Amino acid sequence: MTATMLDCCAIAAALCATFMAGSRHLKRNILFYTLQTILLAFATAIRGSLQSEEQLYLIAIAIALLKAISIPLFLRWIVRKLCIYSDPGIMIAPPLVMHLSLILFACSYFEIASIGHSKGSSMAASASASLLLTGLLLMLTRRTALSQIIGFLVIENGIYLFAMTQTTGMPLIVEMGILLDVLAGVMIAGLVAFRIQKSFEHIDVTQLAELKDE
Amino acid sequence: MISLVISWLNFFLAILLLPPLILSLIRKTKARLQNRVGPSWFQPIYDWSKLCRKDETLSSTLTWIFRGSAALNFILVLLLALFLPWISFKPSFTGDDIFLAIYVLALARFFSLLASLDSGSAFGGFAASREATLSLLVEPAFMLALVALGINARSSSLSAIFSYSTDANNQVVCFLAGTGILLSSLVELSRMPIDDPTTHLELTMVHEAMILEASGRNLLLVEVSYALKMTVLLGLSAQCFIHALQANIVCPKLLLVILSYLGILGLAALVGLIEGLTVKLHWRKDPEFIAYALTMSLLACFISIGQGATFK
Amino acid sequence: MTNLILIVALPLLMAVLGFSAHKLPFFKQLIAFCAWYQIGIELFLFRALFTGKDSVHFVDGLVADRTGALFALLACFVVASALCHACVFFKNEGVDRHKSSRRNVGIFFGSSGLFLLAMTLLCICNNLGYLWICIEATTLVSAPLVFYSRDKHALEATWKYLIICSVGIAFALLGTIMIFASSQQQTEDGTLHLTELMARAGTLDYPLLRMGFILCFLGYGTKAGVFPIHSWLPDAHSEAPAPASAMLSGALLNCALLAIWRISQVVVAAGHPELALKLPLVFGTVTVAAASLFLVKQSGIKRLWAYSSIENVGLMLTAIGLGAAPLFFLQALNHSLAKVAAFLLAGNFVQACGSKKLSELKGLLILSPSWAILLALAAIAVTGAPPFGAFISELYMLTKSNEMDLCFVFVTLVVSLTIGFIAVCYHVSGCLWGKPAIASINANTSWLSILIPATLIFLALLLGVTPISKYIIEVF
Questions:
Q1: I need a surface site. Which of A127, B18, B263, B287 has the fewest CB within 10 A?
Q2: Which residues pair with C125 in a beta bridge?
Q3: Phi first, then psi: what are they for B22, rounded to 5°?
Q4: In a domain, A100, yes or no
Q5: Closest chain C residue to A211 measured between Cα atoms?
Q6: Which of A53, A112, A181 to mutate to test the interface with C (most CBs of C within 10 A)?
Q7: What is the rounded distance in angstroms from the CA atom of residue A120 to the CA atom of residue B44?
Q8: DSSP summary character for residue B148
Q9: Is residue A94 in a domain?
Q10: pTM of the model
Q11: pLDDT by residue (tens digit) across B181-206?
Q12: CA torsion, points C66, C67, C69, C74, in degrees to nearest 10?
């Protein structure tokens, strides 16, 4: 249980996001998301043992239960119900998106360097920035509502990783509130995706463009 | 002096023993997964000795290039085995540069392509074209993985990179580069997700179609150099993983020797496992697979560059 | 603790009533009544603030100061007015006849209760973490409000609203965490409490604080509809039913801006007013200019009001950028009063004529003179023309920018406000005169349907012609 283990978890989580960018199968994306979240929960536990903070164990358990089990199950349930298994994506080939996300990873080094010296490791900080940017990239290069939700979840994971590695002692109640908000947001967005499928007979959000200024 | 002699002896033992052992280990793993007993552990050696005794059949269109390139290929792979640090107790040479390794690998491939074109058969031609395409795609991945290690060690000398003396922070780079090398050597060696080495249909072959025309001792040379190349490449990626491990645990020299053997054998078993569990990818899906290897290597590069920036 | 229970009890009761008791005959009136009663409770709780005390303590992290209390009262007033009008609005819609639409109305009123709760807590937050949670909660609970009509357009608007705001607010969360990290650079324990952050503002790590402020500004700015990231706002405001549009425009935008103002206060206290003021100032001015140009070419009446809201958000941001908190509140107050009236009246017309398009809304003066005159007055009040209150606050703003030698801001504001005024007057007068597309409207034009808008416009007029505005600015 060393600090480098924490870095390894962070990089592995970033790698999961990169692989998500490289695959358009929704179920595989959800699987990678689950893996990523488990890694984050594990990293939280490592951090907890490094700093001997009991509340981090609590947060790790909450993440594992809510974000690594409930949300993927819910998303898989939607995938099964909607019978949509892969995302058509925009015109860029998935391997190219994957490499784009790597370039974003490299950019996040400079970004982190420009913010300056925070207390945590710079490796984990750039991994979290890369999660954030890859999540945005996922949202930009995907078309179905479900992929948008997954992209949002990746962004959220990136933010969480940043909070966990760069600060100490975030108030527990704030962390839990954020977790609940995200959970509720995903549930509502998932239900809206259902409605979209029902009334438009597709869940391609790029085709939702009826409302605009004339 | 004695330790030098022992290390040379050990090295030759590894070169002689490991290639046939790996081949049979892969076959055994695959057979076990399919609930078969599989061929005997000594089957590669039986095969090779049989090939040694057999006569050669040469097509009338073949020139000296065909026979010469098989021998040259073997020599180049042997050269690769001599200076790629694929095992921890390898005696070191001066001038063992990563770029030299990459060029020797490319040169060996060039001669095998030449040989398959020289045979003049239709299968040889398209196999050569496929091999050239694949190697074009996979070369950046392989090269970048080595370059990442080089940046990390601040040296392009292979013995300096794999000297077990770098600091602890590089384990992420080592791990990623090792995975990159493993994935790209699957392509380089035409193993499973890219090419099925046991297929009987020439239209789907890549590597096998290239050596259709070879027979007798010529085929023996090709087979042996292929097995040696596999040992070296798997060993290289195993060394990367051992380096990543070594950042956490300090290993004595003897343990490193055992780990080197075990690492190669473990990766060979993994290759067998992959062959038992997966199906061959569609030809158009191959670039996607190679992209994963490239991703690993690029990430390793970025991280090593970034670490260098923070250390300064 | 008693204070907290008092302030959350009624909104929770509203939510429970809305979600479970939609079979009761008078549940709508009951909920609207609760909202009015909530104003009384808040006045009672905040009474100490107006007699000299600086803060009212609820629990750790929820402490009301004067600005927060004023914004909480304003939000509550807006919700109460909108819900009161909603009783008439939904009756005209004929929802009482269908079981499913009764349930939808129940969900609408219940979500409004939760919306009120989230906004009230947001205004009295003294902790950046709670602030973020409350803002995200407002997004989540107002999604059902936008989705009320359950059709394709509403669906599209809801989706955009949810996703764009959630991603924007996610960046605000990153900003919040960076501010937390910046408070941790010199001491071991970081803090998110605003008062503590202000107290040790000098020790905050500037690069992290700067990044955090910029991210928070962009995140909460998305929620407020600041110019380049406003795209959800016109869609959501035009597709939501009129009372929901009124609540979104009149209460939610203020709350998002309040969040920006609170964080900018921290940055000012840390000794970097150039960042904390210039960013809102520049974005505010650009938003005013862009929104006034958008106003010129609009085809829907509710989209017109939505862009007018964006223009007013720009003005409020400019007020923040000028470092004038009273002006910020005054502008928010004037905008809320006039815009709620405008949205409610527009909702009446849209409901009666069956179209949102300006080209199909013609001859409103013939169809219903009382509504049409009020709509014209609301349009004038919204654009900041005399004698309404918005004129006073905009005049203060222009004087202040002139005093501070912000020539660029001054010129842009004057030109954009003029363009906005002309555009709104052109569009609205086009609706008032002409030949009506329908023979007569089949809606109830009784005094009940104009009670709330007329009161709001009267209040806006009072703010303009009596010295109340001056009093607010001086007392602050």
A1: B287
A2: C62
A3: -65, -45
A4: no
A5: C235
A6: A181
A7: 53
A8: H
A9: no
A10: 0.86
A11: 999 999 999 888 888 878 888 788 88
A12: 140
